[in-house]
Structure prediction request, 266 residues.
Amino acid sequence: MRLLADLHTHTIASGHAYSTVTELADAAVAKGLELIAVIDHGPSVPGAPHPWHFWNMKVVPSVYNGLRILKGVEANPSPHSENGIDLPDMLLELLDFVSVGFHPLIGFYEPVICRNTDAILRVLENPYVDMIVHPGNGDFPIRIDEFVASAAANNVIIEINNHSFDPNGSRSGSSDRELEIAAAALAVGAPIAIGSDAHYHLHVGRFEAAIEASRSIGLTQGRVVNRSARAVLEHLEARRPRPRLDFGGEVFTLDFRRKGSEGGDS
Prediction:
């Protein structure tokens, strides 16, 4: 399976990641990717950026050395906000890509399956939400059948997170649950993506562990939204308008132009 888009990458703005947008983009270009989504953590995660950070992401290039960059967020369910998410709808609407997932210290302190399920079902009903990340997280159990049925009905992507299958990762114990959810999503026709969850630029496009695990449930490349930039953009644009998708313009660096010229002369 060859995947040409990575819908889950983080920059130093998340507070616990270690690369810039440009470093992520350069790494993606070097690996032959066509698209990345930069989705730093929503403001309820400790160390995450202020909402102004997401409002101003329009300044980031939309295309960098041929790589499409989606400017987005990895937001969080919220037990206190008006829309059940830790960023308001008026801001979510402006972003190219909105993902949501449970994390520690965001207000869901006990593994209460009913409360968690109700929270994530409310998130899935939000028209600006595009993907639910690492849903197998064992600290936040949910009712799987209701979750995948709602994702399918609302055409929201369910992620298989590569980091969940890393034996050294913080969510390594959630791999079986994540695969169970992926199998259920596949069965009901919900859209599926495989994300790297890269917190360092050399990890962009790292899907190997998740791809290997997904073979056991019969997942094929044609069922994975992030198989190409075209597939991603077609899925997203069918769901809702993306008003700032091209605001950042197209940028080619001098080094990239030089390499392209050298390649053309050979």
